[in-house]
């Protein structure tokens, strides 16, 4: 919801508009599955729709979607390796859309013997 549009927008006639709260309708679901003690996968989706007002321009945020999936492995104590695929889409009030696809690779090593990834 942080990537959405404004919280307040003009509503009513152009000459006598008032500021109103713009409703957001969010949804989010994520699932993590441990295949073994050292292999974990997480998949998820989130989305938000904004109920735009008639006085907002065509380029304002209307809807956003985001999905991700990853695989994390701990091959040895204190070392975590992972790869994640991410997809997102934005739709404006006027119908224009934009997509983003990314791959992220991560590595983490815990130097303390008291903690583990």
What does this structure look like?
- The protein has no helices and seven strands.
- It is mainly beta and about 120 residues long.
- It has one domain (about 10, about 25-110).
- The strands form two sheets. It has a five-stranded antiparallel sheet with strand order 3-4-5-6-7, with no helix packed on it.
- Strand 6 and strand 7 form a beta hairpin.
- The chain starts with 7 loop residues before the first strand and ends in an 8-residue tail after the last strand.
Features of the shown structure:
single chain, about 120 residues, mainly beta, about 60% strand
Summarize the structure.
The chain is mainly beta. It has strands spanning 8-11, 18-21, 24-34, 39-50, 61-73, 79-92, 97-109. It contains no helices and seven strands.
How are helices and strands ordered from N to C?
EEEEEEE
SS field, number of helical segments? 0
Q: Could you give a short account of the major beta sheet?
A: 5 strands, antiparallel
Give the termini separation: 29 Å
Across the major sheet, the strand order is 3-4-5-6-7
Poorly predicted parts: none
CA radius of gyration is 20 Å
Mean pLDDT: 89
Beta-strand fraction estimate: over 45%
Helix share of residues? under 10%
